[in-house]
Design brief:
Organism: Sphingomonas lycopersici
Order of helices and strands: HEHHEEEEHEE
CATH architecture of the largest domain: Roll
Domain Transcription elongation factor GreA/GreB C-terminal: 82-152
GO molecular function, one term: RNA polymerase binding
Radius of gyration: 22 Å
Shape: elongated
Strand order of the largest sheet: 5-4-3-7-6
Distance between the termini: 69 Å
Protein name: GreA/GreB family elongation factor
Helix content: 25-40%
Biased composition (Basic and acidic residues): 1-18
Largest sheet: 5 strands, mixed
Length: 157
């Protein structure tokens, strides 16, 4: 018998929608990162109310909302970074293979590499954490790839 005659609905042929993956490790956030999570939840709450009649859209919003609510519940406000050592919440000026760069080390959800904000779990951030001004660090197979020029704490307790 043809599949067309036995199929109850199109639901059985839809791709499954998995939950959004939660990054491994602790959910460290800056004060700005915590505010961004709260703002995203408020946006999704408003969108869910507007999409009342659109069931597929409501399901998509509910999925996103579960992710952000989990991130809010698990958020850990990181302590203020030391002024003279690179840590979570530091702004760092450095050269990478001779090219000057400035980045800020932030939480996974706050990361925006185009804006110079990289996650503390990124390889570059891991290479920088613990260093201080004037340090020369290995990165990507080169022993002197990074030279730290300046370190600044970006938030206080």
């Amino acid at each position: 018998m043809s599949v067309a005659f036995r199929r109850e609905s199109d639901e059985e042929h839809k791709e499954p929608r998995f939950e959004l993956p939660i990054p491994p490790g602790p959910n460290l956030v800056t004060p700005r990162g915590r505010a961004l999570i709260d703002a995203r939840i408020a946006e999704l709450d408003a969108a869910q109310a507007e999409a009342e009649a659109d069931e597929p859209r409501r399901e998509e919003i509910a999925r996103d909302l579960r992710y952000w609510q989990t991130r809010r519940v698990t958020a850990i406000l990181a302590p203020a970074p030391p002024a003279d050592e690179i840590a979570f919440g530091s702004r760092v000026e450095f050269t990478l293979n001779g090219e000057p760069r400035t980045i800020e080390i932030v939480g996974d959800d706050e990361a925006d590499p185009a804006a110079g904000k990289i996650a503390f779990s990124a390889p570059l951030a891991r290479a920088l954490i613990g260093a201080g001004e004037g340090d020369v660090l290995p990165f990507a197979g080169r022993d002197d790839a990074i030279e730290v020029i300046a370190v600044e704490a970006t938030f206080a307790d």
